[in-house]
C-alpha cells in the first residue's frame, strides 16, 4: 500500500517514485528466493547505485544525490517494504561511506566516493564484538601504530556485509587514553 508522503520538492517525489519502481521490479521478484536460500543478492547494489539510490544524502559534488536526510529515509522505507534485509544493507553501506565524506581529503573523496556511492564497491561496518555487542564504550579490539599503518588485534562479530564488502569501517581502540 502506498503511503502519502510529505516531501520537500517535486524532485524528491520523483526519487520516491523511482525507488518504488526499482523496488517493485528488481527487489520484489527475487526476495523470496534469496531469503529462502539465505543467499546474497549479487548485482542488487550495482542496480541501486546506478539508480542513484545509494548516494541520496551525500553532496552532488562527490557523486551524491544532494537530498536531505528526510528524503533518504523515506526511500529506505520504500525499500524496506519490499525487502528489509536490502534496506538495512543500504543503510549500513551509506553509514560506511560517511567517515570518508566527513574526514577524508578531497583527493581521497575524488578517488573513492564515486565508486562507493555508485554501488560498485560495498561498505561494511565493523563495530560489534563478541563480548561487547555494539557497545562502543566496551570495545576490546585494539589498533597499535606501526611504521606503515596500524596492527589490529581483537575480534569482531556480526559485520554487515562481512565477507562481501570491498571496504570496512573498523572500530578499535588506539591507546590507553581511548578507554
UniProtKB/TrEMBL annotation:
SUPFAM superfamilies: Acyl-CoA dehydrogenase NM domain-like
Domain Acyl-CoA oxidase/dehydrogenase middle: 124-175
Top-rank taxon, per record: Bacteria
Listed GO MF terms: acyl-CoA dehydrogenase activity; flavin adenine dinucleotide binding
Domain Acyl-CoA dehydrogenase/oxidase N-terminal stretches: 9-119
PANTHER family found in the cross-reference section: ACYL-COA DEHYDROGENASE, ISOVALERYL-COA DEHYDROGENASE, MITOCHONDRIAL-RELATED
The protein's name in its UniProt record: Acyl-CoA dehydrogenase
